[in-house]
Amino acid sequence: MATKFKSILPVIDISSFPQDFDAQELNQLQYHPVLAKLRKACKEWGFFQLVNHGIPVDLLETAENVCRDVLSLPTEVKDRASTGNALGTYYRSPNFERFRLPDSINPASVEQMCSKIYPEGNPIFCETMEKYALSVSNLEKNVTKLILASLGLDPNAFYNSCFERCTSILRINGYSSENLSIGEEALGSHTDLNCLTILYQDDVGGLQIRSQEGEWFNVKPLSHSFVINVGDSIKAWSNGRYRSAEHRVVYKGWRDRMSIGFFTSFPEEEEIWAPVELVDDGNPRRYKAFIYSHFKKEVLGDKENKEKATALERFAGV
Predict the structure, then answer these.
(1) Overall domain count for the chain
(2) What CATH number does residue 108 fall under?
């Protein structure tokens, strides 16, 4: 019997929410429709689609075009941007490949990546990716603050003390139709280990999310939107208030898929521990304190356990 899929991921428009506000206004803003919808989305899905985010449409369209150009390059050319580390900067399988910018997203790091792929120079690619990386980095900061505010926390204080030192990775993801059959998994089921993921995807589709009830749902591509998801690190840091959902990519069967992922993570030696403001009698502490690099090493290095979607539960309990 064929599996039926639905598309009901929350869509959040942040254009009506004030970009700057004082901590004194937080109690009033808790009832703002944007925060209320964001809170519900993070609790129930751990995913949402972001529209009217402020990043120009022409920049998004140009970024998609230049990234497709990169993915069409010969393998030996793309290998210039590779360190050969399957779990790090670069990975290729017969139907999935990714590129990563250096952990510090800035003009110098983008230029370094550009020069490796295009040593003869490609100003359109370099300038576009520099603008894209910095624009999405600013968006991530705003979204993280919105998430903190939705938890009832002072967004500026907690961002500065807990999230300002996060590292960032930008990846160009390509899913080739050459080696895939319709309905086949192009990227297997997993949760993200990091804090927050901001994904720009083309109109091909194929991204699916598993609900709390265990059903798979399609994420219908919305033009010029971003798909944003909470990772295991935020789930632990929020004391389990927000969800890190299992997701995958399934081949849709009409052309290659392309996406650009922006991933933020705690520093390698950061201790992840829910703040006392998120722990009370109704929400007792759910996770032991753990070092982010130890968590990554245990999960990514565990060849026996393939259930990465439940990896965080190994750290449950106090």
Answers:
(1) 1
(2) 2.60.120.330
Instruction: Indicate the pairing of strand 207-210 with strand 216-218.
Output: antiparallel
Q: Is 34 part of any domain? A: yes
Per-residue model confidence as pLDDT tens digits over 224-242: 999 999 999 999 999 999 9
Q: Are strands 247-250 and 185-190 parallel, antiparallel or unpaired?
A: antiparallel
In a domain, residue 6? The reply is no
Given a cut of 90, whether residue 212 has pLDDT beyond it is yes
Owning domain of residue 260: 11-315
**Is 4 domain-assigned?**
no
Residues 6+ apart with CB under 8 A from 26: 149, 152, 154, 155
Read off the pLDDT of residues 95-142 as tens digits, 9 standing for 90 and up. 444 444 444 445 566 777 788 888 888 999 989 988 998 899 999 999
Per-residue tokens: 230: 């909470």
**pLDDT value of position 81:** 66
SS (HEC) of the chain = CCCCCCCCCCEEECCCCCCCCCHHHHHHHCCCHHHHHHHHHHHHCCEEEEECCCCCHHHHHHHHHHHHHHHCCCHHHHHHHCCCCCCCCEEEECCEEEEECCCCCCHHHHHHHHHHHCCCCCHHHHHHHHHHHHHHHHHHHHHHHHHHHHCCCCHHHHHHHHHCCCEEEEEEEEECCCCCCCCCEEEEEECCCCCEEEEEECCCCCEEEECCCCCEEECCCCCCCEEEEECHHHHHHCCCCCCCCCEEEECCCCCCEEEEEEEEECCCCCEECCCHHHCECCECCCECCEEHHHHHHHHHCCCCCCCHHHHHHHHECC
Spot the catalytic one: 98, 210, 257, 286.
257
Whether residue 286 lies in the annotated active site: no
User: Is 1 inside any structural domain?
Assistant: no
